[in-house]
Design a protein that fits this description.
alpha/beta, 2 domains, Oxidized Rhodanese, domain 1, about 10% strand, about 280 residues
Length: about 280
């Protein structure tokens, strides 16, 4: 079955030389996109390959489909194959941004039907703190063929718009409380949120060491937010469909499977001034 949610630094260290394990470095900075690759070139988990958020984990932007639209599945499958990933591989992803980008890759692999993918709990920071093996050497993986088995699991902007007043759809926003309330917006041109949505800041999934909270604690916290709603009613949103994957991963850790992603998220929603916007505290 493989690891499907998290992997500890100890377990990954034991498998660094395992040819059936592939490690992916997903470090990225929104304000300086080249920073992730520069950091990777300086040092990375030994044997790790690099995945860039804007080019590898996102598709073509039109100005109306959000800042990080999903790539074409066939294109992403080719990217994975070039990194030496096929159905036989256990994939591990990490970053240095609280595993936000690693969670995006985790979700995308599952979207293409690959369940043997886990996020390194504690990420790059914990790996370095524990003085585990890292290197500046760039690996040269043998290319293979990744065969996608595309699943559902996401909705588009038309779906969200059509279900704004539907009590059976529950939009959960992963942005900070200030952005959710529309008090500040450092990235997108318009502040606010999708009307009727609720807030679960992705950082609330982590403990003080930037590791995910225990499964039972995460389950209790998400169940309090859902207030008895079925998990299948949840649609996850954020700024651009990246940090909200952190909530999807946290719910999976908690045993709450079956929610869906709105990839375009706020950056797509606010691109059309005809779409309604809500601000302020929830009533």
């Amino acid at each position: 079955m493989g690891l499907r949610t998290l992997v500890s630094t100890e377990v990954l260290a034991e498998h660094l030389s395992d040819p059936d394990w592939v490690v992916l470095d997903c470090r990225h900075e929104l304000t300086r996109p080249e920073a992730g690759h520069e950091a990777y070139a300086r040092s990375h988990v030994t044997g790790a390959r690099f995945m860039q958020l804007d080019s590898d984990l996102s598709g073509e932007k039109t100005g109306m489909n959000g800042r990080h639209p999903l790539p074409d599945p066939a294109v992403f499958a080719t990217t994975l194959g070039a990194a030496g990933i096929d159905e036989s591989k256990q994939v591990v992803a990490y970053d240095s941004q609280e595993n936000v980008n690693a969670s995006r890759l985790w979700w995308m692999l599952r979207w293409l039907g690959h369940d043997a993918v886990a996020v390194l709990d504690g990420g790059w920071r914990r790996w370095v703190e524990e003085e585990l093996p890292y290197s500046a050497e760039i690996p040269r993986p043998a290319p293979t063929t990744f065969l996608p088995r595309l699943r559902g699991g996401c909705v588009d902007v038309q779906f969200v718009l059509a279900h704004l007043n539907d009590p059976k759809i529950f939009v959960l926003d992963a942005r900070s409380p200030a952005r959710f309330r529309g008090e500040s917006e450092p990235i997108d041109p318009v502040a606010g949120r999708i009307p009727g949505s609720a807030n679960r800041f992705y950082r609330d999934n982590l403990d003080e060491q930037c590791c995910f909270k225990p499964a039972a604690q995460l389950r209790a916290e998400f169940e309090a937010i859902l207030s008895g709603r079925p998990v299948e009613q949840v649609v996850h949103s954020c700024g651009s469909g990246v940090s909200t994957c952190h909530n999807l991963l946290a719910m999976e850790i908690a045993g709450l499977s079956g929610s869906r992603l709105y990839p375009g998220s706020w950056s797509e929603w606010c691109a059309d001034p005809a779409r309604p916007i809500e601000r302020g505290a929830r009533g």
